[in-house]
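Researcher: Batch entry, complex prediction.
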Amino acid sequence: MAAVPGVRAFLSLHRSVSFGLIQVQLRLTCHPVKLCSTVTESDMPPKPPVNPENESLLDNLNLMGVDVKKAHQRQPGVFRKSFTNEQGVAQFLQGKGACRKVIASIISRYPRAITRSTDHLEKRWQLWRNIFTTDAEIVSIMDRSPESFFRTSDNENLEKNIAFLISLGLSTKDLHRLLTTAPRTFSNSVELNKQMVEFLGDVCTELGGKNPEQFAKAVISRNLYILIRSIKRVRTNIDMLKSSLKLRDSDLLAFLQGSGVDILDLSNECVKKNFNSLNQKMTLLGCQKSDIKKLIMTYPMVLYIGTSTLSSKLDCLLNVGITMDQIVEKPKVLDYSVQNITGRLQELQKVGYNFQKNGINILDSSRKRFDAKIEKLSAPPEE
DNA sequence: AGGACCGGGATCTGCCATATTT
DNA sequence: AAATATGGCAGATCCCGGTCCT
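Model: Structure tokens for the complex:
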């Protein structure tokens, strides 16, 4: 096994000499020291045979406007390759409507892209086009995340992924959303994706669910990020929810594929930290455990809110006399930014809005609707 | 008509560590 | 040993408006 590369190098060394291939290749392929020693010293370049960088490659990249320094730092190996396809890749992408700047940015951020053959790119592109209707969409995803497109060269795996996701019953629309939102999903190995689906199915079964596939599908289509999370992360979050909410199995199952689905992919530390601070804050305010549970159940996204943000939001609401009870009843108001909430509270106070009497739902509305409401409230009462 | 209820949209990559291949 | 492939991680909301309900 280990001898194979050496032999290959030896052969290509001879090829290079006898057929007069370019000098670069000679220098690059004679790297193994032992083999080089079989050649007389005078045949060797005077410099030690450390892989030099391909200079025409550097020139090309510079010409293309690639941030060579950044690229080099990212994937130095690419720069020592004897053959790269930067021209082909650039031409290909240009043909798909990517501008020079985008191409340069893509290569700067994921240099390995230039090791892909044009043929391979063509195939991969077609596979993506099964899901996207225009080239422009693909270009924009690529520009956003070059790594998602280029990290793996396994087109067969991509094909299998698409087939697998379809087999779960995900619609083409779901696939489109999935590839747009979390493109990395498609460069996961199918095995990894299958493991997650299997894991979700197991969770469902453990909780007494009768339709594990439907559950997995529901979770994926409602939380497009789930397949790019680790099983460990999702499992830990489910365990945390399980132990802190103490729901009946069937309720937990419904929660997980309903509104609770959004918090499954939160980082574990984050859930823990945010849960603790919410718990602490509410306990301090005299809330019961049941209130805390109710809040999380009706508005799971509360766990997304960091400690200080949550504190500010609650404080500015409480400061104008709104009670924790009211917030627990209408938690959606926490959805809005601190700035938005404080601004609206001021406006409402100006017109003498009575939160006790009229409730706080007014805070949960679009800017347009809110302004219309304020205008009505501040208009002189007419008969 | 007006408010409540509810779900969706934007966006979430870029880096590091380890495994695998060459 | 070097390069590539793959898995995993951290970070932590905000806003809009359709539709239903009264």
